[in-house]
Design goal:
By secondary structure, the protein is an alpha/beta fold. It has one domain: Spore Coat Polysaccharide Biosynthesis Protein SpsA, Chain A (Alpha-Beta Complex). Helices cover 49% and strands 15% of the residues. Strand 1, helix 1 and strand 2 form a beta-alpha-beta unit. Helix 7 packs parallel to helix 12, helix 9 packs parallel to helix 12 and helix 10 crosses helix 11.
Length: 268
């Protein structure tokens, strides 16, 4: 196989984004100047139901806004994330892959840490970005309990306990293209586990891990009114955890991810 032409050093933010009500737009616009300082390019793959105003205003501020062809769910999310890598890697030597809601929270509340992370990404082929114990504990119990199961199963297969469920990664161009070349990529949200399990088996790839504060739970950023009406954040989170439908959804997600662990731990 012919060697690929060298790409100049360019760090690209490749983000997935779903925001039907434009609820993240104000925060996005606040932090965009800082994000443009950190990244050579910002590519955002938006869901079909994301608000038109968000798409237009992000594009007007030098964000490459790309459209998903169809709405992803937890069984097809891995393919949407792979599509995000495909669009982001075009002009990249390295990628920071992250959900948009998480990266704008990170930029607003932990900008120095985010700068440190972006500086570390080019020194790795895969940099798994997880959460400190404090950041993990900010999430509601429905996420903590089910994601702990996923992380435990991943650790059994990987040989080291890591937090892999924040869906944030740094990739070299080579690592991203290895994932894009897979004949049967992981289609589901189980790519959280599948991608590092696969890449860790590739000779000479540099794999690292960083536990971060900035990947704390970002969802409260856009629910200030509901939090106030509930009587504060603790009461709002208690109500959030009290919904059995959320437990069913998170348990289904955990089953998909643990299934991916079992499929990819023996991948050649």
């Amino acid at each position: 196989m012919d060697s690929e032409p060298q790409v100049e050093s360019r760090l690209v933010l490749a983000a997935t984004h779903s925001d039907p009500d434009d609820a993240m737009l104000a925060q996005s616009l606040r932090v965009l100047p800082y994000l443009h300082e950190l990244y050579d390019e910002i590519v955002v793959l938006v869901s079909p139901d994301t608000g038109k105003r968000s798409c237009e205003l992000l594009a007007a501020r030098n964000v490459r806004v790309e459209q998903q062809t169809q709405q992803a769910d937890i069984e097809t999310l891995g393919l949407a994330r792979l599509d995000t890598l495909r669009r982001g890697v075009v002009n990249a030597s390295h990628l920071h892959f992250c959900d948009w809601d998480r990266v704008i929270h990170w930029a607003e509340f932990y900008p120095d840490e985010l700068r440190e992370v972006t500086a570390a990404i080019p020194h790795h082929d895969l940099l798994i970005l997880g959460r400190t114990a404090r950041a993990f504990a900010t999430h509601p119990r429905v996420q903590r309990d089910t994601e702990a199961i996923i992380n435990h199963a991943f650790g059994l297969a990987f040989g080291q306990h890591l937090d892999v469920t924040a869906a944030a990664r740094g990739f070299s161009r080579r690592a991203a293209q290895l994932l894009l070349a897979l004949e049967n990529p992981e289609p589901s949200s189980g790519n959280d586990c599948a991608w590092p399990l696969y890449l860790a088996r590739v000779p000479d790839l540099v794999v690292g891990y960083a536990a971060t504060e900035g990947l704390e739970w970002e969802t409260p950023d856009r629910y200030a009114d509901a939090i106030s009406a509930a009587g504060g954040l603790d009461a709002w989170i208690a109500n959030y955890d009290a919904d059995p439908q959320r437990w069913e959804f998170r348990l289904r997600l955990a089953l998909l991810e643990v299934g991916a662990v079992n499929r990819w731990r023996i991948h050649n």
